[in-house]
Amino acid sequence: MISLEATLKRILDKLQQLMRHHKALQQENDRLRRSAAESEEKLKHAQEQVQLLRTQLDVLKLNAGDLNAADKKEIEKKLNGYLKEIDRCIALLSE
Length: 95
Hints:
Layout: H1 4-64, H2 69-93
C-alpha cells in the first residue's frame, strides 16, 4: 500500500506540473493574440493601400481619356457617393 505522504507528494508534483503547463499556455495565447492583432493591422493597412491605388488608377484612366462607358459610370457613381458623404458631413457640422 502506498503511503499517504507519497500519494500527496505525487498529487502535488502533478499539480505543479499542470500549473507550469497552464502558465506556458497563457503565454502562448498572449503571443498569438498579439500576432493576430498585428496581422489585422497589416491587413487593414494593405486594404487601405489597395483602395488608394484603385482610386489613383481611376484618376489616371480619367485623365488619359481611355475609359469605356462602364468605367465612366462607375467613376460617376463613386464621385456622386463622395459628394453625398461630403454633403452629409457639412450638414452635421452646421448643426
